[in-house]
Amino acid sequence: MSTIKDITTLEDWAQHLASLPPTTLLIISFHAPWAAPCAQMATVLSTLASEYPVTEPPSTSWVAIDAEELSDVSENYNVTAVPFLVLVRDGKVLETVSGSSAVKVRDAIETHAKGTSASAGPTVNGTNGIAASVEAKEVNTAPEDPVKKKEELFKRLGDLVKAAPVMLFMKGTPSEPKCGFSRQLVAILRENAVKYGFFNILADDEVRQGLKEYADWPTYPQLWVDGELMGGLDIVKEELASDPDFLKSYSVKADVAATS
Amino acid sequence: MAESSITESSIKAALEERLKATHVKVQDMSGGCGQAFTTLIVSPEFAGKNSLKRHRLVNAALKEEIAQIHAWTAKCQTPEEYQKEKAATGGNDGPSFEGTSGGKVEGVSQ
Question: b/e per residue, A191-203, with b = 16+ CB within 10 A?
Answer without folding.
Answer: ebebbbbbbbbbb
